[in-house]
Prior knowledge:
Elements: H1 2-20, H2 36-44, E1 53-58, E2 63-69, E3 75-82, E4 85-87, E5 104-108, E6 113-114, E7 122-124, H3 130-134, E8 143-145, E9 154-155, H4 158-173, E10 179-184, H5 190-195, H6 202-218, E11 224-227, E12 230-233, E13 236-237, E14 252-255, H7 256-276, E15 279-281, H8 292-306, E16 322-324, E17 334-336, E18 387-390, H9 414-426
Parallel strand pairs: 1-10, 8-9
Antiparallel strand pairs: 1-2, 2-3, 4-9, 4-16, 5-10, 6-7, 7-8, 11-12, 13-14, 14-18, 15-17
Amino acid sequence: MKSRLACAVLLPVFILAGCSGSLEDIAPKAERKLPQEVTEAMQAKGMSKNSPIMMRIFKEEGVLEVWKQKRDGRYDRIASYDICKWSGKLGPKYTEGDRQAPEGFYTVRPQQMNPNSSYHLSFNVGFPNAYDQANGRTGQHLMVHGACSSAGCYSMTDEQVEEIYAFARDAFRGGQQAFQLQAFPFRMTPENMARYRDDPNYPFWQMLKEGYDHFEITKSPPKVDVCERRYVFNRVAADGYSFEPTQACPPSTQPQALLTAYQAYKKKQDLAVSQAAWKWSKQQPKPTIAGLEEAKLVADWSRRRARGERVTPEPPSLTPVMVAKQKAPESAPVTAYAPPPRPAPATQATAAAEQPPAEQEAATAAAEANGAVTETQMQVGATPLTTGSTPAPAPNPNRPAAAAAQPETAPEPEQGRMSRLWNMFRK
């Protein structure tokens, strides 16, 4: 009798769903649970359903990784997905219309999640961030989304984006206020850094590698700020000072043990890069964007084509290819090779630009432009540590207000956050 009653209740629901052509009202895609095998893997790794997350993207390898915080405060990889499509070439996004998928350190907050995306599900990566804005790079609607279609975004299959969305949704419901998304041109191994050592984007990639290395050491998302139009990682500004994207970097400190660990790690990495530079990898470098001038040419071609003008095909060097998944090993076999001496790479130059339109999602509200990445979402206590300091300029009384938006909640003291970061690393 009960089973008949249940069928009688459910039958009109399924008939209604059939009329609308969708079961989304019964099982909304934004509310679908993670597969059982994923939840079992989380339990085995000491993770809770609602613990904080972070994400890493590697263009050349075509991979999006989800990392989740364990009970000891450190992060571990819980899932890895083959990116269905991303557009453009290796290298940062410069100007609107250049079709480049962004690279850098970005922040994703709840308001950037779009359960009603016309690309199945999506979230805005937060481009342009404080670094992009300080360097004149503009753009909007840069997403991670489904539908396997890209014009500046990172596009996944619908099934993949449902899982990725669920990781973020559960973390936000657990109290995480924002998660960090790190987008890299490739896995920043010594072999890959050596392979691209002559690329015009190399100084930018060296800067990204510092944040990459901090994560490799601590297994916790680095605190990211911007000053002098460059990224700085895990620094704590002195009392009365703050990090201003276009101003001189303020006096700052860092846990001495973390500073020592990074210096030792960097020394080994630099040596490995130097050794790899004298070999020739069988894995050839992939196409990279030559800089702002190429980005402007691509953007101009895109605008003219959008207006319906008859334009000649783009030269091969300017074609932003829709790049499907390309599996590449972290390091390839090498044979002896002696290249000519080369000068040390120049420091990161200021790049002025604008940015490309990514998928214009019909049902999404424009996401807010992001500021510098906020502190990691960690909840592990620690005792204060001795800090090391770096020389810094005198205070500037005319310094303008920070360009980046501040977190909505009152932040924990900077030194306390950095101390907890190092406490987790020591574990």
